[in-house]
Amino acid sequence: METLWKMVFYILNFTVYLFLIWWVVNKYLVATMAAASLEYWIFFFVIILLAVSSVGYWVAHYFWNSGYWGMFFKNMGIFLLALFVLVNKEVIETGSSDFCKRGKVFEWYMGISSPKYYSIVNIKTELLYPNGSKTVYDEYIYANSDWGNAQRSIGSSDKQEIPTKLHAKWLSYREGENGQLYEGTFDLPYDMILNLFRNGYIYQYTDSEIVKDEYTGISVGLAPGGVVALWVSGSHRRVQVGCWIADKLSADDELFASWGGQKKRVERLRSTDSYDNIPDHIKNKPIGQWEKYNQTYPYRYNVSFVDSEPESLLIETHYYNGERFQSGIDDTVIRSKACPKKITLIWKKGDDEYFACIQFEETYLFRSFEQMVVAPSFELCFAVNKGSNFIDCFLQGDGKRIELPDEYRKIKIFRNHKMVYGNYSQEGIEFWGEGYLY
């Protein structure tokens, strides 16, 4: 009978021990450990159990030859461990960050993007996670953002898992007479996204300083034609990790019953849309254009100066597929990448700092890039004149050269924050209007 009571006592004691450790960790360390893999949890419990139990039993048996005293010491160890965690929870959370990055939990926010001038109504966007849970983002109007640039951050940036699936349903209300509904569910490239968050990225902060940074956001892009894109972003970089096509849906008057049906809803949206009267060359952009933006080309930048090389040079590029890179390193290496939408050059000569924004007319730029694909690789060249107040632009590769003349580009050049050149006001230059010069 005594043996039976001992067994019950040991089982209850062990159960209480596990529950206490679970409660402390779940309540105070859930932000950094709750979603860690099962192997880490097992390792954590086993190590604590062996450490506390073995030390307690060893002390009791050595001094008093008593198993009950051993149990007492084990329980005291559990109490002190819990007290230590409670008192030092902030230190433990900070110290556990590297451990947790080997798991699957990161700080990130969610955003939704639509192309400028092509507003949408997000009816429902859902992110689904490996544990079966999901985050739902309900109806909201997205307008006047730029493709890839999330207009609105949704939710907090607390530590959370990486999603495995995306479901989106939205109304593209600038399409057709009554707008167009789209819906689709897509498998996300989980391993690719996970590796980006784990490894972060490096960028050239100054000519001599290279900085390592982390990705902090996931953005969903919803465009005409049912195009759905996903980007992972940080302060100085945005990388596209996937692009899909959603299914077209028939008009759904029941969905918009409170507005008098889908047609009435679209009419109301357009009547309050400040971009309803935009020019036709912007309004009538081909529906398949956002798919075309994902086409990549093997090229690099070649920035040259007539008089002398600058002391420093930084390049920032916004690409048509929504990506963004800020680095003098990446942009001067030949790699396959999308067409550049807006390019910023920053250089320094002596006491003067220069800042140039360059944007090309979209149709002409894409046509020129297509003509260069016969070459194994090519360069997008920027030749800065002696006074650093004009930039000649052209493509070259494999003995071929295509000029990007003044009538197909907009350029602003600043010296020490004062503009020294700008052709952005020239008549006859028409752009589809997604990009802008600042």
UniProtKB/TrEMBL annotation:
Keywords: Membrane, Transmembrane, Transmembrane helix. The chain crosses the membrane at residues 7-25, 40-60, 67-87. It comes from the Bacteria. Pfam families: DUF2931 (PF11153). InterPro entries: DUF2931 (IPR021326). This is DUF2931 family protein. It comes from Phocaeicola vulgatus (Bacteroides vulgatus).
